[in-house]
Amino acid sequence: MEELREKFPEALEEHATHLGEETITVKKEYILSLCNYLKSQGYNFLSDISGVDLGVDKNPRFQVIYHITTVPAGKRLRVKVNLPPDNPSIDSVTTIWKSADWFEREVFDLFGVTFLNHPNLTRILTPDGFEGYPLRKDYPLRGR
Questions:
Q1: Other CB atoms closer than 10 Å to residue 99's CB: what's the count?
Q2: How does strand 21-26 pair with strand 75-83?
Q3: Which of 47, 55, 95, 126 places its Cα 20 to 30 Å from the Cα of 74?
Q4: pLDDT grade, residue 143 (50/70/90)?
């Protein structure tokens, strides 16, 4: 982790270790450069991207969480990015890991996070014409 702090001193907001797994929180403008660096360091498998709505009255309101693994060494790293309540957007990592394609579409569809420069950012789980984002905390419990 020291190497990341030296290479990206202005990007890292937080670092934690729990049960031997590391989690870092980075500023959204550094996600592409950080992920490119991680891939060059052997983190060759993006196993998941998830979204979180922390609450309507929170700032940051949203988080995008990347689960990255270096398969040969079996090390995992969780990368979190905080996003503001208005216009939650972040650069797409599909150019780094192809597996990001459907994960980003899912987070877009369910939380409304826009992934900039995504090759096909369309809904993946809800029907065409669906209004709203069903995993946001302000989405009505009974639907619309």
A1: 15
A2: parallel
A3: 95
A4: low
Residue 61: both structure tokens together: 């309101």
The residue to which tokens 């009974």 are assigned: 142
| Domain annotation for the chain: domains and CATH numbers | 2-88 (3.30.460.80)
Does the pTM surpass 0.90? The reply is: yes
Q: Which of 68, 76, 73, 66 is closest to 113 using CA atoms?
A: 66
Distance between CA atoms of 37 and 47, rounded to whole angstroms? 17
pLDDT for 2 equals 84
Q: How confident is the model at residue 144 (pLDDT cuts 50, 70, 90)?
A: low
Give the strands of the sheet with 12-18, arranged side by side: 12-18, 21-26, 75-83, 62-70, 45-53
Q: How far apart are the first and last CA of the chain?
A: 45
In this predicted structure, what is the pLDDT of residue 141? 82
Radius of gyration of the chain (CA): 16
CB of 107 closer than 8 Å to CB of 50: yes
